[in-house]
Design brief:
The structure is a single chain. The protein has 316 residues and is α+β, with helices and mostly antiparallel strands. It folds into 2 domains: 11-132; 166-308, Nucleoside Triphosphate Pyrophosphohydrolase (Alpha-Beta Complex). 23% of the residues lie in helices and 27% in strands. It has 8 helices and 16 strands. It binds zinc ion. Zinc ion is lined by residues 136, 138-139, 141, 154, 156-157, 159.
């Protein structure tokens, strides 16, 4: 896969505006507003459903006032975007009614365009963090959202608390013949395989984490560890840092038997056949794992991404 990354987000976060409460209030009046409830976002069939300030006001009969988070502005104009993080005043008992018109990013992320996905990732990641940080980690007092939702501030000691993002490495393991190694977790649907991944631990470099995770899960050491790309993964608060790594000892790979119950080596031909026969399910297109697999697959002549369509699955 190409290591060339798009480095400029399609949304300008305009962080200089976060401290200007008056300006943010003004922008809210003409903003496109993304409703977020319990990790779910408002959608239509294949795109985000934006509210405006008036429609938010009209919904306050059923939903809490909640919090507003400034997501930024479009780069090609002045359009401002906010997340409205709210909850039901009286939640319906019926789950279907509770989340009518709302979906998770896992469910719809693959259908969204780049701008919508960027906004959705930001809104959901930020909402997840606000939900779990109502109190000060220093003194236990209440915290309040401030600076357009980019921090929370303790009401007792005024300490600022910033959103956290948990780094995790994800690794496409290859051998010298350009096969790739995928693993299956016992908690996944049958036949679903993906790349290896794990959280970076304190005091550990990304490369050390890659080596440790691949050894722990697949029993092999790798060399030639190369950075590929990164991707926000707010489920609930990760960023995936993607690498490829090559092993000289593919024959010694074995599943750890705990987290990983099966491993399989794939050549491109083997993957094509396995997908076509329903013998292999891949992670969804929104995931960096899928992008790595597709990038590898299409790097050889005669292999196209559509060969891999249809065989995909979310983990439960
Ligand atoms: Zn405090």
């Amino acid at each position: 896969m190409s290591a060339r990354n798009q480095s400029l987000s399609p949304i300008d976060r305009a962080s200089d505006l976060r401290s200007d409460a008056g300006k943010l209030a003004l922008l809210w009046g003409s903003a496109k507003i993304l409703m977020v409830i319990d990790g779910h976002i408002a959608v239509t069939d294949a795109s985000l459903r934006f509210l405006n300030a008036e429609s938010v006001t009209a919904l306050l009969t059923s939903f809490e006032v909640g919090e507003r988070y400034f997501l930024g502005r479009a780069r090609d104009g002045e359009q401002a975007y906010f997340a409205w993080h709210t909850s039901w005043i009286n939640p319906p008992e019926d789950e279907a009614a509770k989340f009518e018109g709302l979906r998770t990013l896992r469910e719809v992320g693959g259908d969204l365009d780049e701008i919508e996905l960027t906004l959705g990732m930001h809104a959901v990641g930020l909402s997840n963090w606000h939900t779990t940080h109502p109190r000060c980690a220093r003194c236990g007092a209440q915290t309040l959202s401030d600076l357009g939702g980019s921090v929370r501030v303790c009401v007792a000691d005024s300490s600022q608390h910033h959103p956290r993002t948990d780094p995790a490495v994800i690794v496409l393991v290859k051998d010298a013949t350009d096969r790739i190694l995928l693993g299956h977790q016992s908690i996944w649907p049958e036949k679903r395989f993906s790349t290896f991944a794990g959280f970076v631990e304190p005091g550990e470099s990304f490369e050390e984490c890659v080596s440790r995770e691949v050894f722990e899960e697949a029993g092999i050491y790798c060399n030639d560890i190369n950075y590929l790309r990164s991707q926000s993964w707010p489920f609930p608060a990760s960023i995936m840092i993607a690498f490829e790594a090559i092993t000289d000892h593919p024959e010694t790979a074995k599943p750890d038997g705990v987290e990983i119950s099966q491993i399989r080596w794939f050549s491109r031909d083997e993957m094509k056949v396995a997908i076509a026969s329903g013998d292999l399910l891949l992670p969804p297109k929104i995931s960096v794992a899928r992008k790595m697999i597709t990038g590898w697959y299409t790097a050889a002549a005669g292999f196209v991404a559509s060969d891999l369509s249809g065989g995909e699955s979310w983990r439960p």
